[in-house]
Amino acid sequence: MSHRASALREIQREIQSHLSRVRLSESDGSSESDADDGEGSTRTRYDEKDLNTARRRASASSVSSWEEEVSSRSENARARGASQRGVDRGNASTTKGNFRVRVDAGMEVRLRRAELRKVDVELKLAKSFEQVELARRALEEAVNIHKMYELEFEEASEEFEREQELVYEELDRRERESRAEQMAAAQAAAVVRAEEHRREADASFKRGNMSEAEQFYSHAIAELEVSGIVLVEPSHLWLRVNRATVLFMLGHVHEALAECELVLKVDSGHIRALLRAAQCCLNLSELQRAQRYLEFVSLSPNAQPSELKEALAQKSALNRAFVEQHKVSGNESYRNKDYVGARDSYSSALDYLDAMHLSDSIKVKVGLLTNRAAALMMLGNPLQAMEDCHETLALDPLHIKAQVRLSRCLLLLGQFEEACTEAREVFNKDASTSEQKSEAKQVIDDVQSTQQLIDTHSKLLVKMEETGHEESVDDLERTLRALDEVSVICPHAAIVKTLRAEALRLKRDTYAASQLVCRLGDLDVRGLCVRARIAFDLANVSDCLESLQPLIPALELYAGREASHLIALDGSQPPEEVIKQIPNPASLLQILEQVSQISELKDAGKVAYIRGDYAQAESLYFDALKLCKDSDLLQALFLSNICACAHAMEDYINALASAGAACALAPKYAKAHARLAAIYTELDMVNEAQQIYECLLDMDLSHDEREKVHTYLVTIRDRVKAELPANWRKLLGVGAKPSKDELKKKYRQLALSHHPDKVVRGGSSESLINARAAVSSRLFNLINDAYNVLSDDNFVIKWENARVRAQYKCSHPCQDSVWRRAPFAEANSTRF
C-alpha cells in the first residue's frame, strides 16, 4: 500500500505540472475562450458528474484494478497531451485550428482535474484502507488482551472464593467451638442441677411425697433434655424409670408406660423398665403386652433373684387377669348364644388356670368347668359335658349345679338309670334351690316318659321283625314320630339311634338307617344286630361280618353248639345274657350262615378271576348268587361279577343278560351300569351306551369317575352322530365269515337260552326272575335282529358298508387326516 501511495503521489505531481503549463498557454488565447466559460462551466458540471460516477466505480472495484486503470489513463493522457501539443503548434496559424486547440485544452484541463480529484480520492481510500487495517490489528490485539484479562479475572475470582471459604470455615469452626464450650458449660451445670433434683426426688420418695418426687424427677429430666443431653446413660435411664414408678403410684399409668417405653427403646433389656411396663400393661388390661414384657424378664440372663421373684408375682396376677378376662368373655358369649365362643373362652381360662397355681384355683376351676359343661350341652356334646361335670364333682362333691347338669348329660346320652339317680340326689338335698329341684324333677319325668316310649316301640319293632309285618306302614310312621320326639330329649342315646335305624330299615330306607349305626363303638347288642341286617341289605358283606363278629358266640349257643369256647361280648356279658338281647336270633343266625358262605365263595371267585380261570369264577359267583335271595343288592353284586367273567370270555349275550338284570335289581348300583355301558360300547350299540353313561352321571360317583364318564360320552356321541351300526357278529359270537349252518346253530342256541319263557336260571328270587324277564325280551329281539341281518347276503353288504362309512366319519370328525386312539374300539386298537 505504501508503494502504491507513492506512485499515486508522483502521478499527482505530474498532472499538476501539466495543468500549470496548460494554464500559461491558455492565458495568451483570444477572448473566445472566455466566451466558452458558460459551456465550460456546463462541462465542468458534467465532469463532476463523471467524477461521482468514477468514485462509485472506484468504491465498487478493487484497489489493484483501480491502480492499473489510473496508470493506463495517465500514460494515455501523456500521449494525447504530447500529440495535441504537436497539433496545436502546427495549426496555430489559423482560427479554426486555434478554436479546436482551445476546446481540446479545456477538455484536457477538465479531464486532468477529474483525474486529479480521482487520484485524490483514491489516495484517501488507500489511506482509509491502511487505517482500517491498523484498526483491525489493534482490535485483535485488544480482544486478546481482553481475553487475557478475563482469564486473570476468573483465576483471581476463584482464588478469592477459596480464600473466602477458608475464612468462613474458620469462622464456623470458631463459632462451633464457642458454642460447644458454652454447651459443655451449660450441660455441666445442667448435670449438677439434675443431680440435685434427683437427690431431692429420692428424699421426697422416701418421705412418701410422690407428687413432689415426680416434680423433681421431671425437673431433672427437663434440665438434661433442655441442655441437649441425650438420655442414654444408665443414670439418665434410671431417672425415667424412677419417674415411671412415681407416676404409676400416683395413678398416671399411661404416662408411666410411656416413660418405660422410652427407656426400652434405648435399652431393650432394662429389667426394671420391663417390670414396670408389665405392671402398667397389667393395670391397663393389656395382658398380651404384659405377658411379652414378663417373658423378656424371665429369659434375661441379667435378671436378679429379686427381680425374677417380682416377675413371678406379676405372672400370677397376669394369669388371674387372663382367667377373669376369658371367663367374662365366655359369659358374654353364652348370653349372646355364641356357644362355640363360650366353650373356647372357658377352655382358655382353664388352660391359664392350670399353668399357674393360685390360692383360689379350685373354686375358680369349678365354676369354669360348670360353665363349659353348659356350653358343651348346648353344642350337642353331652359326653364332653359329662366329663366336665365329673371333674367338677371330684373337686367339689357338693356342687349341686354340676350334679344337675350331669343328670341332664346322662339323659342326653341315654343312660337313664344313672340320670334318675343323680336327679333324685339333687331333688332330695336340702341345700338345693327350688330351681335346681325343678330341673331335677324335669329330668326324672323325661327319663320315665322316654323309657316308656322306648320300651313300647322296641317291642313293636321286635314283633314286626319276627312276624314280618313290614307292610304296617302306619305303625312304622307312628314309631318314627315317637322316636323323633325322644331324639329331641336324648339325641345321643344309642338305643334311640338303634330303634330309629331299625324302623327306617323296615320302612326300606336302608341308606338313612345305615347313617345312624355307622360306628361300632357306640352300639349295644341290639345296635350290632341292626347294623348287621342293614349291611346285609346293602350287600356290604365285610361290614355285616364285622358287626356279627361279637355276636357269634351267642348265635352259636342259640344254634345248640358247644359253648365252652365262647367268649363274652366285650368281656362283660356272657353269651346267655347276650342272646336275650338279640331280636329274632333265628333270622340273624341265618344271615350269619349265608354271609359266611357268601364271603367264602366271593373270595374264591375273586382268586379264580385274578388267576384267569373265568369259567370257575363264574361258577362260584353263581353259587353265591343262590344264597342271596333275601338281598337285591347282593344279587346285583354277584350278577355284576358274573357279567365281568362272561365279558372276559367274550360271551357278550350272557354278559348283557347279567349286567341288565343287575341294573334292574339295583338302579343306583354304579358298577353294574358301568359294565353294561362298556359291553354296549364294545358291541358298537352306541345309542344304548350313551343312555347308560348319561344315567351314570346322576349317580354318586367320585370326581375321577365322573371325569371318565364325561370322556366316554364325548366319544360315544361322535359315534352316534356317525350312525355306527351294531356289531352283530360279535353279539352272536361268530367269526368274520360264518357259514349258514354255523350261524343258524348259534342263533337257535342263543334264542333258546334267552327266551322270555325260560328266565328261571340259577334258582334265584322272584325279584331276579322279574328282572331277567325284562332283560330277556330285549336280548331275544337283539338276537333276532342280528340273525336277520347276517343271514341275508344283501343285508350283510349294506350293513358292512354302513359300518365302514361310520368308522370313517368317526376317524375324520373334522375331515382331518389325524391318528387317534379309539377308547371303545375293538381290543382298544388304533385306527385311522
TrEMBL record:
<feature type="compositionally biased region" description="Basic and acidic residues">
    <location>
        <begin position="40"/>
        <end position="53"/>
    </location>
</feature>
<dbReference type="InterPro" id="IPR001623">
    <property type="entry name" value="DnaJ_domain"/>
</dbReference>
<dbReference type="Pfam" id="PF00226">
    <property type="entry name" value="DnaJ"/>
</dbReference>
<dbReference type="InterPro" id="IPR011990">
    <property type="entry name" value="TPR-like_helical_dom_sf"/>
</dbReference>
<feature type="region of interest" description="Disordered">
    <location>
        <begin position="18"/>
        <end position="95"/>
    </location>
</feature>
<keyword id="KW-0175">Coiled coil</keyword>
<dbReference type="InterPro" id="IPR052758">
    <property type="entry name" value="SRC_co-chaperone"/>
</dbReference>
<protein>
    <submittedName>
        <fullName>Tetratricopeptide repeat</fullName>
    </submittedName>
</protein>
<feature type="domain" description="J">
    <location>
        <begin position="727"/>
        <end position="812"/>
    </location>
</feature>
<dbReference type="InterPro" id="IPR019734">
    <property type="entry name" value="TPR_rpt"/>
</dbReference>
<dbReference type="InterPro" id="IPR036869">
    <property type="entry name" value="J_dom_sf"/>
</dbReference>
<feature type="coiled-coil region">
    <location>
        <begin position="139"/>
        <end position="166"/>
    </location>
</feature>
<feature type="compositionally biased region" description="Acidic residues">
    <location>
        <begin position="29"/>
        <end position="39"/>
    </location>
</feature>
